[in-house]
Amino acid sequence: MRNIHSTAAEMAIALAAKEISSVELTQQHLDRIASVDDKIHAFLHIDNDGALQQAAAVDAKRASGESLSPLAGVPIAVKDILAQKGVPTTAGSKILEGWRPPYDSTVVAKLKAAGVVILGKTNMDEFAMGSSTENSAYGTTQNPWDLTRTPGGSSGGSAAAVAAFEAPLAIGTDTGGSIRQPAALTGIVGVKPTYGGVSRYGVVAYSSSLDQVGPFARTVLDTALLHEAIAGHDERDSTSINAPVPQVVAAAKRLDVKGMKIGVIKELSGSGFQAGVSARINESIELLVAAGAEIIEVSCPNFEYALAAYYLIAPSEASSNLARFDSMRYGLRVGDDGSRGAEEVMSATREAGFGKEVKRRIILGTYALSSGYYDAYYGSAQKVRTLVKQDFDKAFAKADVLISPVTPTTAFKIGEKSNDPVAMYLSDIATIPVNMAGIGGMSLPVGLADEDGLPVGLQIMAPVMQDDRFYRVGGTLEAALLSKWGKPILSNAPDLAGQK
Amino acid sequence: MAAISRDDVAHLAKLARIEMTPAELDHMATELEQILGAVKRVQEVATSDIAPTSHPLSMSNIFRDDVVKPSLTNEEALSGAPAQAEDRFKVPQILGDE
Lengths: 500, 98
What we know:
Largest sheet of chain A: 11 strands, mixed
Shape of chain B: flat
Radius of gyration of chain B: 23 Å
Structural class of chain B: mainly alpha
Order of helices and strands of chain A: HHEHEHEHEHEEHHEHEHHHHEHHEEH
Oligomer: heterodimer
Strand content of chain A: 5-15%
Shape of chain A: globular
């Protein structure tokens, strides 16, 4: 085993064989974080003591011969939007600075029960509103491939941590592409499971009909192992699907796509996509054909309206969800000098505690839901949502999975789009339809763009609760690419520890 | 569509309980108009014969059994409170003086 550069599956095997202890493996990752995170800024909170205690507990259980779950002792980074008992949880916002949740989110509880060691909490755009981590109240995360570029967002800290070998696994959330887009921009695998496939209990809510928790890792198999560890029905999330978890680990190991029909979405190709992105996607299509898949073209004519609908639906839901930050029971309180009433204190706190993009979306959502405008904006957006779902239904009647690029471009420069909200929103154009329909999707790294040497992501989408299909296709394509390249994609990234 | 004025944004900010400065209101009015200009495209295809979708899953009335389960202690529930008194959340004045 090559320690921090190994896959999570290899780490798990080495731990089971007692070639390494979880305390040693955890310490190696904490050392890596200490040596590179001042350049990356993937983490908002590093839980050194808590992680080592958790690792020691797993080692003790293993020594006593207890049967352990597959990922027991392997470290993970968790997006700072999931509540973890006693550990700071800010959602990237000043309004939650210093808050230590009195309970665990279901996903964190599942990770703890599985013996997965939580290293710390990762940076993100405030309340998951953004595509670059530039909206974090605690500074921007840098892309390990090029420190002048963003890692994408909103789960940019989680993606950068995995790409920089600070953690082999990470948890993110995806409302309009916030797992898949940063995975694509950092050259790792990211999955947005089917809506309702993973519990949202204890996850700070942004847009409840779109939000979904999901896994990041450096390989398809590692992603599948983490997916199975966190998925499943939870009675504390009323939108959680009460059905068996798709067999994603078996699908990731299948390495065979013979006879599968793969639909290429006409509207998400060609013009509007960087040449180097399109070139890598086309190569992937050739490899899938060589592996025995049948490629067909499908049309989703209403996708062009999905972005507009998303930027009405998500802010509308956010304006309601974020009403809970009222300075009364937890979080920041500003201006409570005894002379001001509750409403004044609330308004002063929200002015001081929310960042620019969050205020922008709350105001936009308040407008879209206000009487006189509701039908024209929110109501129309809900109808577009129906049309997007119908496009998917028609496409999946012809194809087992659908593919497209994840993003129009490779990683963009920090500051390049931060003053132009509409340009920033466009980076989610290919990922948003998936959230609107509630289906699942994977971002798979498929090479580097010729013009800039930065990673390109292929998006693979499957119908509701058929998540195993994109693991099957992703695993097969990953193996074909690896045999073509001879080495993993991340071996092309700079060695951060050597940089000054 | 009518232009978004500073007064319009001030009204929205009041509804959303965000105390904005005049400069912020002006800036937000400009941005809001730009964003609304981009998102109003939804109206091009949203005809009256299409049913709206509010949620990806069609489910309703998810109940659990009505049994008492362990929950947060009073101390835990108050652990993040900005102010507390007598085992309760302490909040600024809510009602008027009269």
